[in-house]
Amino acid sequence: MSLEVTDLRVEIGGRPVVDGVSFAVPDGARVGIIGESGSGKSLTALAILGLLPDGARASGSVRWNGREILGLPDRELARLRGDDIGMVFQEPRTALNPIRTVGRQIGESVRIHERVSRREALRRAVAEAERVALPDPERIVSRYPHQLSGGQRQRVAIAMALACRPRLLIADEPTTALDVTIQAGVLTLLRTLVQDAGMSLVFITHDLAVLAQVATHAVVLEHGRVVEQGGVADLLHAPSSPVTQALLRDATATLWHPERAHPSVSDAAAAAVQDGPALTAPSGGAIDASVAGEDGATPPTAPTEPGASETGRTP
Ligand SMILES: Nc1ncnc2c1ncn2[C@@H]1O[C@H](COP(=O)(O)OP(=O)(O)OP(=O)(O)O)[C@@H](O)[C@H]1O
Ligand SMILES: [Mg+2]
Predict the structure, then answer these.
(1) pLDDT tens-digit readout, 290-308
(2) How far is the CA of 16 from the centre of ligand 1 (A)?
(3) Pocket lining: 57 vs ligand 1, CB cutoff 6 Å
(4) CA 57 to CA 52: how far, in whole Å?
(5) pLDDT for the residue 93
(6) What pTM, to 2 d.p., does this model score?
(7) Ligand 1 in reach of 42 Cβ (< 6 A)
(8) What pLDDT digit, counting tens, does each position of 233-242 carry?
(9) Which of 4, 14, 42, 70 is deepest in the core (most CB within 10 A)?
(10) Which of 8, 12, 211 maximizes ligand 1 atoms within 8 Å of its Cβ, making it the mutation to test the pocket?
């Protein structure tokens, strides 16, 4: 099942914000969309999904499996989003319903795709929670979103998207809100799940280092236009546009000068230096322990044993 975006345009109030974007996602491909803030990444994704904000108008062509889906009626698009195309957004707090248990929410995703009883859906939710490496899945399904850490909530959002068994997953900055070390665990999980299921992926980020961890191809946007696209390895070795060169400088700066990144990266680096292993080994217990504790929202009742840390549980 392939996605083909041709000359996609989005206008808001007469202003072009996506301006003739074309790219393809062949079956099983993992494509990253990258660009600075405001370059049109999210609106490109929302246009594909038929979820543009009021006042935005899209034109051009979006073909899913050869069928034009741009401008389909809401009901048909909703069915497509339930069956074929899953999505994960940047901030899991807004994607999750605060007054429903995570098990019920994952179960509801199962029920979009399959006619099963609520009870069976809850049983399936446990299996889905396990699939995204949530610790103690039997217990975690009875918790509410605020009782989980940020990384755990994002795993729930991924579980909800994957419970529908989509053929394509669109993830818009799914790890940007997370601590850098926790990001690594979620990225590895996402890539592994997508690969194992033979799904395609559209992954949006502003960070080339992140993109390189999950995608095989990249589309670089600037002011709503594609300035460069190609294989990730080529882009890293010979970026042709100034935008890509700048993104590469930023990514390299973060990798080699961790003090310029999020403060906790430097903490993780310091812990790693004390304990010996390199910064790039996110599964190291010392880094996990120091960063998992900063993840904030984990209440005292949640499991906090070392095995429950974000990065150590990828399948
Ligand atoms: N609801 C809206 N109303 C008006 N303008 C909008 C709206 N949403 C986005 N825009 C404008 O469209 C442009 C592209 O926005 P978009 O959200 O796609 O950027 P982005 O690349 O995802 O940025 P970021 O990395 O910050 O998420 C921006 O100039 C933004 O200000
Ligand atoms: Mg965005």
Answers:
(1) 233 333 333 333 333 333 4
(2) 11
(3) no
(4) 8
(5) 66
(6) 0.80
(7) yes
(8) 999 999 999 9
(9) 42
(10) 12
